[in-house]
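PROTEIN DATA CARD
Card holder: Acriflavin resistance protein
Chain length: 293
Origin: Pleomorphomonas diazotrophica
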Amino acid sequence: MASNASPASLPRPRVPWAVVGVTPFMAFAVLFLILPTLFLVVGAFQDNEGGFTLSNLGKLWTPTILSSYWISIKVSVASAVIGAAIGAFIAYAAVSGGLPRWIRPTIMTFSGVASQFAGVPLAFAFLATLGRQGLVTIFLSSVFGLNIYAQGFNLLSFWGLTLTYLYFQIPLMVLIVTPAIEGLKKEWREAATILGASTWQYWRHIAGPVLLPSFLGAALLLFANAFGAIATAYALTGSSLNIVTILLYAQIRGDVLHDQNLGYAIAFGMIVITGLSNLCYILLRVRSERWLK
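Structure generated from the sequence above:
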């Protein structure tokens, strides 16, 4: 039997507003993340004439390039571990430390700003503060007679770069781990106390295992964040510290070490390392969210 419904009475297709809302983000991700990444991956397997080759990947095992990867990994691990530990304590103090109410929004606001403060301005700020003629350096020398550079400190070194990275690593950790700390239910602490558990036992058997995936995932994210940083390191140390991002810049844009396809191969190695780090972060975050629901 033919339907008597008129065309005007038929349901109109709904506009997928959710899809429309995420379209700008997807377009941005495709244009500035996915396509450039594919371009780098393809270039890593090409020679100067555009032919297929594996020689670029083979050059990654040369001592200079391996050393640059190793230095970058050490700086990233050091800044991630220290930043994660300090940031976790700050976040816990802000959320559950019984501090005045105005401190938490102040910390969160500062963390949101400081986590994005990097590049040339950050390098200049540290040079003006802890450089050989920096404000703090001169203050310690003139007031306390302490010459930190005579004691072995050097801002243009491994620990100097790590200290500089901590400026944005610690606030980033605060932003990431605060929701996980807020997810700890008060009922868990109350139940543990009623059952006779001490503070150490509560953290050892309840809060610690719940927060551990979030903590490890955040530390991995800090590692990836530091591993891919270039502007701060280049502005601060120049070529005095041979980290992989500076070597990559020299291969693609430099006048002496110019080898564009080798630069693509170096970038491909960085993509693999940061990709594995981010994948582990996602897996740990999924696990932590199951506990905190």
